[in-house]
Amino acid sequence: MNGVKEIFNKEMARIFKDKKMIFSVFFLPVIIMVGILGIINSLSQNMADDIEEHTSIVYMMNEPESFQAFLEASQTKCDVKNVEDMDDAKEEIKNGTADLIIEFPENFEMEVSDYKEGDTVPQIKTYYNPSEEYSSSAFQEISGGILELYRQSLLSERVGSLDNIAVFHVNSDNPDMVIQDDAKAGGKALGMMLPYLITILLFAGAMGIGTDMIAGEKERGTMASLLVTPVRRSSIVLGKVFALMVISGISSVIYLGAMIAAMPMMSGGETLNIQLSPKQGVMLGALLVSLAFLYSAIIVLLSVFAKTIKEANTYVTPAYMVILVVGLLTMFSTKGADLTSYCVPVYNSSLAMKEILTQEIAMSEYGITLGMTIVLGVLLCGVIVKAFESEKVMSL
Amino acid sequence: MIEIKNLTKVYRLNKKQMQESHTKNPKKVAVNHLSFLAKEGEIYGLLGPNGAGKTTTLRCIATIIKPTDGEIVVEGHEARKDSEAVRRSIGFLTSDIKLDPQFSVDYLFDFFGRLHNVPKDRLKARKEELFSYFGIRDFAHKPIKELSTGMKQKAAIAVSLVHDPKVIIFDEPTNGLDIITARSVTDYLRKLRDDGKVVIVSTHIMSEAQKLCDRIGVIIDGEKVAEGTVNELLIKTGGQDLEEAFFELYKAKKGA
């Protein structure tokens, strides 16, 4: 196969001899991704801080003195006002100038203390606006939290110790409640996300360069210079597909590394605990290489039929969508897959990756996946070679 | 030697192309039963107006496109059956085959040399010879995109000759070149002829054809209407020079 190496080396030189290209292919996407995550993170942090510092404006009606004391004791930041006109107060909630209304029934304390079995239980009504952050937060904190504590304190006044009415507790003192294999659990969290990320990144990393490598060369008129050399069409195709594989591999490793590094930023300090056994590592590695081969072949095939880079991008984008959706399918599937699922290309790779990480894959399933991926890649390369032989497709 | 027998190339037009050329016929005959022979030690010129089928003929010889009918034999290899052997023995230059703008002439010369399996020391000697003849050394390390039209053409010529081919096919090689560069190109083609190579050039520049070509085939509408040395063509048509001779042939073909 004379020529494969030369074509491969030239494609590599195209990327690695050009600093701008290295930057735009490998580092720009990472910088953009980390930058966006950083901005989102700091903005959401700001928002949380702002809500925490906000003094809630709470309207109260018929509030008993015991509740006022209770609220003050809880040290909740709030500015209590009396309801003079209920409709006005509701209007203020609606337009966001006030955060919460608490309406106690008249003679609330008396109703509570004089309660006899068979009486109607008094009702406290609260009003809030869920589309306002401050209002939601005040509702959660005061209506959900403090009123509940207030209820419990009144209840204990009535019945003495609360244990008198508690028939049983569930897990009130059981720190060993969770029984799981930590490695497997880590694999599960990782297994849900990683195949999705990897399939997307492998494809995305190869997209831009792949269309340029084929359709770009056609557009620039440089493809024909290769076609007048005695090198076989199949060598040209393989040289380019292999080069694209390596580029998509390198870029996905860089993207993935950056993502794992940026993980604490995304999940608020939590890091993913990734531990792979050598066997898992080899299985994953072989699968990723074959997947990079298949994706590169898909991108090259679609680009061959385009006359310009722009046209190639319109062909490749739908394929990217399919890859995205297929990745999602495995991300949210809980049922164990049957053997036929491992015969569906692309889908099977995500599935296999997930099962490798959770250590649930059978060798037969892995074998079928790897075989299918490679066979399809080879078949597509065959079609690409045929396309290269067609003067119409190559627009000569 | 190149032998072409009854070469025919028919293109299928799509709807858009049919509209553009105002025709309802989906077939366009670009070359029609063309035959000629080009031998070692001669420059054979294909002369014709734009769209006559010169480039199509040369592309068929270079095996970039396949003939619809007819036979092309280059150095004993049939173009359709043994296209790789044909490509090994030819150096092909045409304006719409371009060098990668991102790379330097130096890199591309080595790259194409390796694709042609030129041994390292031979490649070095070829580079020395061609780069000094065409004065490429001064810009050998600049990317193609930074070169002028003339420099690009010189680079393309040098790269197309990297493997010292027996057959040289140049499609309008002096197009867009200044008079000095054009002269160095035609002089080199003469040198190649004197070295015993088969040289085919296509051109629509009469004066160039008259001075350069040993034999000329005149093509109009995909058909060869006359062939011979300049003198033979002048005698045949009664023209004073090749331009007059060409117009006589053109009028006869078009029936005007």
Draw up the topology in text.
The complex is a heterodimer of chains A (396) and B (256).
Chain A: H1 4-16, H2 19-53, E1 56-61, H3 65-73, E2 78-82, H4 86-94, E3 100-103, H5 108-113, E4 125-127, H6 133-159, H7 182-220, H8 223-227, H9 233-266, H10 278-304, H11 309-331, H12 347-357, H13 363-389
Parallel strand pairs in A: 1-2, 1-3
Antiparallel strand pairs in A: 3-4
Helix pairs in contact in A: 1-9, 2-9, 7-9, 7-10, 7-11, 7-12, 9-10, 9-13, 10-11, 10-12, 10-13, 11-12
Chain B: E1 2-12, H1 15-20, E2 27-38, E3 42-47, H2 54-61, E4 69-74, E5 77-78, H3 83-89, E6 90-93, H4 105-115, H5 120-133, H6 149-160, E7 167-171, H7 179-194, E8 198-203, H8 206-212, E9 215-220, E10 223-228, H9 230-237, H10 242-254
Parallel strand pairs in B: 3-8, 3-9, 6-7, 7-8
Antiparallel strand pairs in B: 1-2, 1-4, 4-5, 9-10
Task: Write out key terms for the chains shown.
heterodimer, A: mainly alpha, D-Maltodextrin-Binding Protein, domain 2, four-stranded mixed beta sheet, 13 helices, B: 256 residues, alpha/beta, Rossmann fold, six-stranded mixed beta sheet, four-stranded antiparallel beta sheet
Structural account:
The complex is a heterodimer of chains A (396) and B (256). Chain A has 13 helices and 4 strands. With 396 residues, chain A is mainly alpha-helical. Chain A folds into 2 domains: 236 residues, no CATH class; 116 residues, D-Maltodextrin-Binding Protein, domain 2. In chain A, strands 2-1-3-4 form a 4-stranded mixed beta sheet. In chain A, strand 1, helix 3 and strand 2 form a beta-alpha-beta unit. In chain B, the strands form 2 sheets. Chain B has a 6-stranded mixed beta sheet, sandwiched between helices. In chain B, strands 2-1-4-5 form a 4-stranded antiparallel beta sheet, covered by helices on one side. In chain B, strand 9 and strand 10 form a beta hairpin. Chain B is globular, with a radius of gyration of 19 Å. Chain B has 10 helices and 10 strands. Chain B has a single domain, classed as 3-Layer(aba) Sandwich (Rossmann fold). Chain B is an alpha/beta fold. Classes of the chains: A mainly alpha (396), B alpha/beta (256). The interface between A and B is medium-sized, with 22 and 28 residues.
